[in-house]
Amino acid sequence: DAGVTQSPTHLIKTRGQHVTLRCSPISGHKSVSWYQQVLGQGPQFIFQYYEKEERGRGNFPDRFSARQFPNYSSELNVNALLLGDSALYLCASSWGLAGGSTDTQYFGPGTRLTVL
Amino acid sequence: QQQVKQSPQSLIVQKGGISIINCAYENTAFDYFPWYQQFPGKGPALLIAIRPDVSEKKEGRFTISFNKSAKQFSLHIMDSQPGDSATYFCAASPGYQKVTFGTGTKLQVIP
């Protein structure tokens, strides 16, 4: 079975540009979450989507936005890129939101974003 | 605000030894405590997890010990192997979502 897939694998942008990252959840999973992992640190929660609705947001500026599509795939958009946005962006999927071990999150390999 | 504190930052253990990583949390709303293993260039992979209604959970060589009153939990890796060399993250969440991660422990198991 395919796990969580993310594209692209690597991306280089310059300050002020916009970036779109994509995530395909495990088949049957309806929830997608996004995390930012700066080098040497633990991942930090950015967004959670379930059934195409935002169900949670972390402490990130409005330059960060996301959406979920009818097929449960998701996009993370970051506007006006800053040097500090350089990080590994992780997508995680789960079947639902809470209530049992079936709602455990499974992470993709991430997209490495470098902002110059 | 760091809600999950993890130590040590790095750990070197000899093959066959016991690796111990400790974490402490502040938010009493947390009720799910997973540990993730991350290899370079990969996303975190769930290793083992515990709910606060039990004090210990064992899966193979990996054991979580949980102290609800102290708001602390730890990961023990028995008979550590070179293949266990990775970065380990403790984490906590209310339910299974919006996971808050610790800062990570880089484990090196030497032959």
Descriptive account of the structure:
The complex is a heterodimer of chains A (116) and B (111). Chain A contains no helices and 11 strands. Chain A has 116 residues and is mainly beta. Chain A has a single domain (5-115), classed as Immunoglobulins (Immunoglobulin-like). In chain A, the strands form 2 sheets. In chain A, strands 2, 4, 5, 6, 9, 10 and 11 form a 7-stranded mixed sheet that branches. In chain A, strands 1-3-8-7 form a 4-stranded antiparallel sheet, with no helix packed on it. In chain A, a hairpin with a 6-residue loop joins β4 (31-37) and β5 (44-50). Chain B has 111 residues and is mainly β. Chain B has one domain: Sandwich (Immunoglobulin-like). Helices cover 0% and strands 53% of the residues of chain B. Chain B contains no helices and 11 strands. In chain B, the strands form 2 sheets. In chain B, strands 2, 4, 5, 9, 10 and 11 form a 6-stranded mixed sheet that branches.
Give a short synopsis of this structure:
Chain A is mostly beta strands. Chain A has no helices and 11 strands. In chain A, a hairpin with a 6-residue loop joins β4 (31-37) and β5.
Query: Compute the gyration radius of chain B: what is it?
Result: 13 Å
Which oligomeric form is depicted? Answer: heterodimer
Measured by DSSP, the beta-strand proportion of chain A falls in: over 45%
Strand content of chain B is over 45%
CATH superfamily of chain B: Immunoglobulins
CATH architecture of chain B: Sandwich
Unreliable stretches of chain B (pLDDT < 50, length at least 5) are none
Which pair of protein chains has the largest interface, and what are the residue counts? A-B, 28 and 23 residues
* Helical residues, percent of chain B: under 10%
Total strands of chain B: the figure is 11
The DSSP helix count of chain B reads 0
Report the biggest beta sheet of chain B as strand number plus sense, adding barrel if it closes: 6 strands, mixed
CATH topology of chain A: Immunoglobulin-like
Reported for the largest beta sheet of chain A, the result is: 7 strands, mixed
How would you state the average pLDDT of chain A, rounded?
92
